Amino acid sequence: MMKILLVTYTPREESNTAKLVQAYIDEVGDKQNITHLDLVKTPAPLLLEENLNALIKRNFMGMALSEGERSAVESADLLVQQLLAADRIVLAFPMYNLSLPATVKAWFDAIIQIGKTFTIGESGYQGLCQGKKALILMTCGGDFTEEPMVSMNHATPLAESLMGFMGIESESIIAHGLNQYVDRVEQIVSQAQQNVVAYIHQNT
C-alpha cells in the first residue's frame, strides 16, 4: 500500500483549495495509507535563532546537540521523518500575494535539511528523495495562464523547484481566476477536480 503525505493549508471557510483536496481523498478512498498534516492546526516551525543555530551546528558542522538544542529541532525533524516515510506527497494551498503562504514556505524550510533530504557533493547539490512524486494543488484569485500574469506566479514554480531540489518529481494542478471570474467559480473548481482524478489514474 502506497504511503501518502497530505500537506494542506486551507484556513478559509468554504475553501476552494479544500474542495480539490477532498476530490483527491474521495478518489483515493481507503485504498492508500494517508497521513494528513494540516498546517493550519499544526504550523511548521519558523527557523528562528534557537532552532536555526542548532540545525547548522548538527547538520553542517557535525556537532552533537545539547538536550535543549535537540528539543529545539524536534518539530522540524518530525516533519522530515513524515516526508521520508511517504511514497507520494500532496501539497495544497491558495496563492498569497503571487507566492506561497508563509506557513507553506516554513514547511519547506523545515524539511529541506542537508544530509536528510539533500546533499552537496563535488558535482553540486543532489536531492536524496528520488523515487517520490508530488502533486501540488493551488487555487488563485487571478488568471495566471497568460502573460504577463504567468511570470507573476511565483508560487507553483517555487514549490516545484523546492520539490525538485530534494529529488522529488512534481506536477501542479491550479484553479485559476476564482475572484476574476466570479460567474464561473463552480465550473473552474469542477474542472480542477476532474484534473485531480485524472492525475490519480495516471499515477497509480
Task: Write a structural description.
With 204 residues, this protein is α/β, with parallel strands linked by helices. It has one domain (3-202): 3-Layer(aba) Sandwich (Rossmann fold), CATH 3.40.50. Helices cover 41% and strands 20% of the residues. The protein is built from six helices and seven strands; from the N terminus they run βαβααβαβββαβα. It has helices at 16-28, 49-60, 67-85, 102-111, 155-165, 185-202, and strands at residues 3-8, 33-38, 88-94, 118-121, 124-127, 133-139, 169-175. The strands form two sheets. Strands 2-1-3-6-7 form a five-stranded parallel β-sheet, with helices on both faces. Helix 5 (155-165) links the parallel strand 6 (133-139) and strand 7. The longest helix has 19 residues, at 67-85. The radius of gyration is 18 Å and the shape is globular. The model has no long low-confidence stretch (mean pLDDT 96).
Quick take:
This protein has 204 residues and is an alpha/beta fold. The protein has helices at 16-28, 49-60, 67-85, 102-111, 155-165, 185-202; strands at residues 3-8, 33-38, 88-94, 118-121, 124-127, 133-139, 169-175.
